[in-house]
Amino acid sequence: MDSPSHSPRVSTTSVPLVLAVDGHSWSYWAFVWLGLGSLLPFNFFITADPYFRYKLHDSKTPNSSASRLELSYENAVTLSVSVPNLIATILVTFVCVPYIHKYRIYSSLSGIAICLLICFAFIFVNVNQWREIFFIVTMGLVMIQGVLCAILLNCFFSLASTLPSRYIQGFVAGQALGGVFVVLCSIASILFSNDISVSAAIYFLLALFVIASNLLTYIYVEKSHLLQIYSSSIQEVNNEHEPLLRSSILDDNAIDSLNITALALRQRLFVAYKHTKWNFFGIFLTFVCTLSLFPAYMSKIQPAYPSIDYPHTLWTDRLYTQVMTFLLFNVGDTLGRMISAKIQIPSILRSRLLFFICLLRFIFIPLFGLCHFPNTNGFPYVFKNDFIYASIVLLFSLSHGYCNSLNMMYAPRRVHAQLSSTVGALMLMALTFGIFVGSLLSYGVVALYGDAQEPDNIQFQ
């Protein structure tokens, strides 16, 4: 079942040409850029947290007080993304064949661009009198983008899983780089202007640029020799695979009672799950742990200064969370995914050990609980140094990127080439389930430590 790390998922007659294309690295970097753009909408809505809090702030209350809408923003975004994302992933995986389709990609990217344009237009609208409506519309746009991103990721993971493993590693590394890109854009916009609205305008224009460039990048990939080889080979795989399933362990009664196409798809998923279950649950636990803390809990952690009377500065007001939480997390996540391309410990033969490493990451929940979180439940504030917090964030993000990337790389190699595309869709389902459960758990983590008030260092323009 196992195959070498760089063995292509194509017919043997196409191997020399795939390796020749692979050697030039252009297609690899195209997948990195596609990965960067695939999670861009979610990253932008999360990292643009100061702008949305500014729009949702009730001007009738003091600056140090935050409204109910502000306090619930991060949790609402993660849930608004994860729920429709989960539903769309299940539908695309179980109802539609989980293979690449160019029209799904074009329509998804175009829809995401339209949603970002609407968000850009809201920058110039005064929403003080209808903040609740603005909140609902924003969450609606987040939900639409969640569905479109699910379709987009299903296509890209299915495609990358059928190619040499360096492509799926490049794609997941690109997703982490997307987080770094978004945070750097946010920091640059903050430094460029003190006006939150101007910063947000720059922010969303950069997002639109990336989505447009993703569309052009996929047009390049679609016309490349690599995808032409993939397209012919996957047709060969599909033609071979369905009769294989019809003659499998399914009995005649089952075949008579259910649709053949549905049976074939379900059987592919069952066989894929059977051989990759440890990787499936490893990805699931990795994202449950990460989303339970990031961003809803970690974005509220304050600077570890000895006095609450420390004067407001650009650093404490607007840059601390962007740098110490978002930037450090995304940098560590990117490094973890890049390290997995060179160091693969534990090996593909020790998938259970990798699963237990993913499980061990839950120790970060009590560790972050000892940082400077504005809690009201009496938990101790132990780590009174920002370097300690930064170190925990880096370890947390490195382990996330490394575990996620290893599981994504190993899973397609544990099955026959005919099932590699199905495995890609299955791993995406694990990721989506993990985001959904982690988003729900984040409410419990925040409530556990007692977030009854907004950090005092938040100041609105």
UniProtKB/TrEMBL annotation:
It holds the Pfam family Nucleoside_tran. One of its GO terms (cellular component) is plasma membrane. It is found in: Membrane. It is a multi-pass membrane protein. The keyword Transmembrane helix applies. Its main location: membrane. Keywords: Membrane, Transmembrane, Transmembrane helix, Transport. One of its GO terms (molecular function) is nucleoside transmembrane transporter activity. The chain crosses the membrane at residues 26-46, 76-97, 109-127, 133-159, 171-192, 198-221, 278-299, 319-341, 353-375, 387-411, 423-446. Belongs to the SLC29A/ENT transporter (TC 2.A.57) family. This is Equilibrative nucleoside transporter 1. It comes from Rotaria socialis.
